[in-house]
Structures are given as C-alpha cells and as structure tokens.
Predict the 3D structure of the following.
Amino acid sequence: MADILVADDDAHIREVVRYALERAGHHVREAADGEGALAEFQRIVPDLIVLDIVMPITDGLDVCRQIRPTSDVPILFLSSRDDELDRVLGLELGGDDYVTKPFSPRELVARVKAMLRRASAPKLAPGAGSGSDTLELGSLRIDPECFLCTWEGRELVLSATEFMLLRALLTTPAKVFTRADLVERAYGHGHHITERTIDSHVRRIRKKFSQHGGDPIETVYGVGYRMRDPGRAD
C-alpha cells in the first residue's frame, strides 16, 4: 500500500502505530527522534509521515518546518491533549491532521487512509491538463484532475488538505462556508476537527497567496469563509 514513516521517541507508541498500520497493509519505517526522522525522510521519501510533536533534540514542529519547503508529503501529528497551541502551530507549519494521545489505533488508521486518499490524485506540470471540472475565479484556477492550482498563471503548491479546502470554497464562490462545512469537505464525515484547525489551514493558504501578491479568500466574521468576488471593490 503506502510507505509510512513513524517518528516518536516512545518505543511503545512506535510499536502500537507500526502494528496498526502494518495490519492495514502499509510498510512502516521508524525513527526515534527528529534527526532520525529527517534522515529517514531523505532516504526513503515516504508517502506519509506520522510525527510526534515532542521529541528530543529536534522536535516534530521543526521536522515539519524543514520538510515543507521541498515536499508536500502528508503529515499526521501525534500530540498530547494539553498541547493545543503546539497542534495549531503544527498545522500552520504545514501539518495536515493530528491525533491526540492516548489514541485509538483504529482512528489513526482511518485518518491515515483519508489522508492518503486526499493525496492520491496525480500531480502534473502546469498546462498538462484542462479537465472539464476545472474551477476558475478571477486569477485563481484549480484543476482537480491534475491536482493543480494556479494564481495569476503561477503554480501554487498546496498540501492535499489545503487543496481540498480551496476547492470546496471555489466550488460555490458566493456561498459562505462554515468551519463545520469545511471540516466535512476536507476531512470527510465523522472527524473531530476543531474550528481552530480549519483556521490554521486557511491562514497557511492565505500566506501562500500573499507571497504572490494576493488573497482570494474572504473572512465572514462569526460565520466562516467564502471566495472574494474579483469584481467587487473592497
């Protein structure tokens, strides 16, 4: 199925995660700290990373920070229940999802399955496809078949979760999506994702747009988000 890197300084946690993922048919590699995770990532280029936030020497947040400039590999954070600020920061750094400790191995496998499904669409070079499902608004263009997003003609590199969120917003540009709407669109039904998680993903998407001189997402305070009308003056 998939090559998955599991990084956690707790050997028991690694054993539990390995057993659950291997039973689901995946191939698992392990790392006991952040430095080991980075070395293993360079060696095998995994399909997904299960990454503990609190690890010695180099923690999970720093591992994510170092990986994200060159890779959009899905990252599932493991965190303690009292680590909400760390979880939010992890998502803003580019994490796709998180599971809190103690966790259900069945839930972890379900999260991994959903993340791999979101990331499974082929990624083609700009101009390589123009499927009938292409969505456009002003300078923004999304081609779901090619997993391609362009802004003013330049490719915008998004993680699978970020792509799904932006696609949901662009599907019905005039609609105001609540955070609950976006949870269901990006993660599927039954995921216990907080509103702050969605806010973190949206902030990261906006940061990527701002690096290219724009922001097509509009906050509707007290409700949620919608796409900005390119023909309306602010």
